[in-house]
Amino acid sequence: MSLVTFKVNKPFSIIILVIIFNLFETVSCISVTNERYRLNYHIMSPAGWINDPNGFSYYNGEYHVFYQYNPDDATHANMHWGHVKSEDLVHWKHLPIALYQDQPYDVDGVYSGSGIVVNESLVLMYTGNVNQIDGRDFSTQSQALAISSDGESFIKYINNPVIPFPPQNGGNDFRDPKIWKYNDTLYVVLGNQNNLTMQGRAVIYSSYDLFDWTYVGVLAESTGSFGYMWECPDFFELNGFHILLLSPQGIEANGDDYQNIYQTGYFVGSYNYRTNNFSHSNTFIELDHGHDFYAAQTMETPDGRRIMIAWMDMWERDYPEQEDGWVGALTIPRELTLSSSGRILQNPVQELIALRTSTLLNTTLNVEGISKLFDVHSAEILIKATFNDAITQVGIRIELGNNSCVLAYLDTSNNKFVLDRGDNDPRRTLINVTNANNPEALEMRVFLDKSSIEIFLGDGEITFSSRIYPSSTPAVYALSNGTVTQMEVVAYELENIWSGSWCIRQSSFVQAFYFAAYLMAKLYIQ
Fold first, then answer.
1. Higher confidence at residue 438 or residue 444?
2. Is Hydrolase there in the keyword field (predicted)?
């Protein structure tokens, strides 16, 4: 057999090879081996590991959520950007992987970042991670851009990284850019550590053209009690105030506060863009009191709502689903508003009503001890209870099988709300919240989804997000240690939005063409 050879120039030959490689690429990916803990209406990866939500944005009539993703293993390594989109914030569709770790500046991980629409293109700004540097012209963590004209195929900017080094006195922990536009200027806030004080801080850069960035200064920093590293910052305006949202590492527990392994919370203040002065009360307020909530990110909808989503898991713990080939999920989307007292209120977005498929229960009852309500995997439960001062515990009990249960109740004797995952849970944590509203009334909205629970109290000022791991269909009970004068319960079974096969990293001719065009442009520029 003879081989036919022909002569082409170098760029063209590389394009042909890249297209052929992408068209016929077959990559083995990890798969889910057991569906027992798979969620019905939360964002999850098809398999493998998921953590921070990234690039939460609205583009061409659709919401986009990207996420930190390891398609090869259910561990935190090999970070890509997974991708889902939705027309309604409820029904999500998996798309091919958006960003791979395929450049010198991101070879060890495409870390967290954000998205923004600029000149009719969807732009992603992310942190490129390199474990070791050998004389390269960028730091171990630098900031890069990827651009798309269709919201699905992304080309990395030729002259990445656009922010190659941390600012003065900034350590190499320099990541998680959140980009936004104010008037005619683009801004980005990043998490960083001051390498002199070894304390966490948030720093700001600005740009007029997306590609050339100028260091503005420190937005805020820890004074010694707010952690050694600030991750996943977000900065936005809410009801006339400016909110700095972030996930610090290293905050010590203080009474009922900061009981989680790592926290996510916010500062409320007023920001002057001209002077870069963020005036705030220096009070860090926890955003969620559950066991599994981190790395929250927000976006503004076309109708002006501020919507937030977060990673519904936590670092440095056991993950029972890991043996099934996957780890992690994202919370339901929540609308944020600011109360008159300066606290963020979180409520499930109104679109989630579309998940309701049938009414499980609609009743008013008196409860003494426990009273079974129903068995269900995925449900929305609304409870309103009023009682006299002889009652010290009122709420719900969820039996998980194998003598394990979850208790979520108002402890009126201590004026606290308690979420207890039970003695059989090796990650058991008792989380209390002081100053619960109205000690003789309880209003709660619960979203239960196979292996997760999210609780919203009152008007949304207090929330809990936690993973749970039942061995059988959960049984939900009303709970009281006395006679509740009245408990109204309305519950809906919720839809399973995930059906059919999921694309993990299906290559396409279009993706191959985009990447080949990128290579050709880079070769000609060089």
1. 444
2. yes
> 457 by DSSP, 3-state: which?
strand
Residue 10's pLDDT is 43
Can you list the domains of the chain with their CATH numbers? 45-165 (2.115.10.20), 351-494 (2.60.120.560)
Residues 6+ apart with CB under 8 A from 270: 241, 242, 278, 279, 280
Handedness of CA 478, 375, 499, 53 (dihedral sign): positive
The residues annotated with a catalytic role in the active site are 52
Taking the C-alpha atoms of residue 466 and residue 468, their distance in angstroms, rounded to an integer, is 7
User: 400 with 379: CB under 8 angstroms?
Assistant: no
Q: Which helix (H) or strand (E) holds 329?
A: none
3-state class (DSSP) for residue 520: helix
- Beta strand pairing status for 48-59 and 326-327? parallel
pLDDT digits (tens, 9 = 90+) for 51-90: 999 999 999 999 999 999 999 999 999 999 999 999 999 9
- pTM exceeds cut of 0.85: yes
Q: Decide if 361 contacts 491 (C-beta within 8 A).
A: yes
2 Cβ contact partners less than 8 Å away, ≥ 6 residues apart? none
* Nearest partner of 477 among 380, 405, 417, 420, judged by Cα: 405
Q: Please give the Cα distance from 431 to 409 (Å, whole number).
A: 11
CA–CA distances in Å: residue 19 to residues 8, 27, 68, 362, 411: 16, 16, 26, 58, 63
The residue among 467, 487, 485 whose CA lies nearest residue 477 is 487
Distance CA 441, CA 413 (A): 13
Q: Are 230 and 247 in contact (CB under 8 A)?
A: yes
CA distance 407 to 337: 28
